[in-house]
Amino acid sequence: MERRQFLAASLAASAVAATQGASAQTPAAGKREFYLMRRYNLQNGPQTQQTESFLSDALIPAVGRMGMGPVGAFRLEFGNETPAFYVLIPGPSVEALAELNLRLVDDAAFMKAADPFWNATAAAPAFQRAENTLLAAFKGWPKVTPADAKAKRIFQMRTYESASPGGHVRKVEMFHSGEFEIFLKCGFHPVFFGDTLVGSRMPNLTYMLTYANKAEMDAKWDAFRDDPDWKKLSTSPRFASDQLVVNITNLILSPLACSQI
Predict the structure, then answer these.
(1) How far is the C-alpha of 93 from the C-alpha of 182, rounded, in Å?
(2) Which domains does the chain have, with CATH numbers?
(3) β-pair type (204-211, 34-41)
(4) Quick one: pLDDT at residue 149?
């Protein structure tokens, strides 16, 4: 089996295994997406502008020509190690995302627009390091739900780490057992929910919410914590264990001008 075929088969198998044991009541809402989440670690100065230009002029248009998107591009405002940009790329399959860079080099328009970034020298790099995570959309939230790109927004990205694969699967099940509905009832605008297939600090899941401002974010979470359905769900024997989530990473992001989400 060729390397590419083996990679795609292995990741697809991981996607199936990661969601086994989910609630039988999970709604069937169409074919789910996969996500490439890329973090660019940067230094203040020319790197931020060069990377933003690469995203707006080269990467996002090329991804669109591949039939994928909408692409989210965000600046980390509050979280570990700034400056950093996050890029969320939805795709139809693990293989399409895993081979993204291999496909980009065949796009002449991309290579021309990307040249200052793509061929930056060691003496003047365009970024420090790039970290990639592959995720599968939750079955109950199978596609990205974009926010109003014209409105001023902030985004909250939360990652839940579990102590064991079993605890992780039960946390995913918890979302499908009423947590989605509680988010919506409390007025949240979820963007995506993703189960990490390949990445660091596994097992974990990541989801993103968006708000007009921090005051709205705080008010929504107050409503969520006080919601009777949440109190009932979170104290049920199956989901009450503190082993479901042992660490939470909470990031506040702002969209770059080129973001499609």
Answers:
(1) 29
(2) 3-14+29-255 (3.30.70.100)
(3) unpaired
(4) 67
